[in-house]
Amino acid sequence: MESFLPGTASLIDCVDKKLLVVLRDGRNLIGILRSYDQFANLVLQDTLERIIVNDCYGEKERGVFIIRGENVVLLDKEKDGYPTLNKVSYEKIKELHEQEIKDKKARELQKQKILLERGFSEEFGDYDLY
């Protein structure tokens, strides 16, 4: 990604390289970029899904992953390892992540309740709490 070309042409340097892809839904995927198109749709091979919660992280193998370009938030070269994070099993990190999502929803609902009591209208639904 040294030389910048407009549009998806700048991805040409990334083919066959290990990349980190962050999606709109918050998932982090690490894999080898095998292909892309003019819409920035991506094909990753040997893909891992990585979940990070507080000072822990876990990974799960996902294999070949096809990603629609509109869902990509960030694309960067993968840096190996997290020296300050503790690696835990995927089951444990998934449990911690689900609890984090529940806690976030509870905080947002409490905030929404306070705003409604103060006369503000409800402007979002469950889909905005992620």
UniProtKB/TrEMBL annotation:
Keyword Repressor: no
GO cellular component: Lsm1-7-Pat1 complex; P-body; ribonucleoprotein complex
Domain Sm: 6-81
Biological process annotations from GO: deadenylation-dependent decapping of nuclear-transcribed mRNA; mRNA processing
Pfam families documented for this protein: LSM
Keywords on record: Cytoplasm, mRNA processing, Ribonucleoprotein, RNA-binding
Subcellular location: Cytoplasm; Cytoplasm, P-body
Highest taxon of the lineage: Eukaryota
Any one GO MF annotation of this record: mRNA binding
Family statement drawn from the similarity comment of this UniProt entry: Belongs to the snRNP Sm proteins family.
Binding partners and assembly: Component of the heptameric LSM1-LSM7 complex that forms a seven-membered ring structure with a donut shape.
Protein purpose: Component of the cytoplasmic LSM1-LSM7 complex which is involved in mRNA degradation.
Protein's UniProt name: U6 snRNA-associated Sm-like protein LSm1
Species: Neocallimastix californiae
